[in-house]
Amino acid sequence: MKFTGRTAILTCCAFAVTVLLHNRAFADSYSLSSVAYTQSENFAGGDDFGNYTINVSDRIAKIPNYNCGGAVNPAQCFETHYVDGSTLFTTAPPSLWADPDPIAGTDSCAVAAGAGVSVSTMLCNNGHLIFAGLYDQLGAASRRGIWAGTNPDPILDYLGSGSIDGGFMTANGNAYFIDGLHDTLDVALNLSTTPVPEPGSLFLLGTGVLSLLGVAHRKFVQA
Fold first, then answer.
1. What's the start-to-end Cα distance of the chain, in Å?
2. 124: which residues sit within 8 A by CB, 6+ positions away?
3. Domain span at residue 70?
4. Strand partners, 158
5. Does residue 195 lie within any of the structural domains?
6. pLDDT tens across 177-197, in order?
7. Which of 136, 158, 189, 209 lies 20 to 30 Å (CA to CA) from residue 174?
8. Structure pTM?
9. Distance between CA 33 and CA 28 in Å, rounded?
10. How far is 86 from 103, CA to CA, in rounded Å?
C-alpha cells in the first residue's frame, strides 16, 4: 500500500493517541457513592467485590428499641450489604482482613511531584491510590475534593467534592471511608479491577473495626 503524506500524518496521530492512552492506563476508573449518613457509625469491613459492613452499634444507644434486624437487645450490631442487594445483620463483627497497610505495587504510594496537588489524606494499596486535597489547576481556580491516581488528571481523575477522614483500601483498590465534609460513609469502587462475585465467595475482607468514632470532621471550604 502506498502511503501519501496525509496517510502518514494520520498514522502518526493514531500512534500518538495510542501511546498517550497507554500511558494513562495506570489510572484506575472509580465510581464514588455515599452509602450512609453518619457522625458516629463506621465501616467494619469491605472487600474487593464491593460488599461492606457498617458498625451500627451506636444506633442501640440512640434508639433503645432498635433490634438489629431481629436480635433482642444486642450489645452491638453490624450491618452487611452485599452487591446483590441483600443485607445481613449480625451481633458480632464479620471475619475481616487484618492488614490495612499499603503494600508495594506497580505505582508508588504517593502523588507525583509537580502535579500541583496538596494532599490532606491518602488511601493506597497494591499500587492503587485515591486522596483528598487541593488541586491547583493551571490557569484556573484551585479545586478541592477527592481524586484518583498517582499522577492525576484535574478533570478525568476527579471523583467529587469531599474529604477522607479515616478509612481503608483493599488490595484491588476499593476504598471505604468517612467523608467528614458531608458526614457520610462513602465507597469508591475501582471499576478497573473489581471482580464479579462468584457463589460462595462473598466473604468480607477489611481492616478490622476502625476506630473512627470521635474523629474531628474536617470541614473544607470549596474553592
1. 55
2. 102, 109, 130, 169
3. 26-190
4. 147
5. no
6. 999 999 999 999 999 987 765
7. 136
8. 0.74
9. 16
10. 32
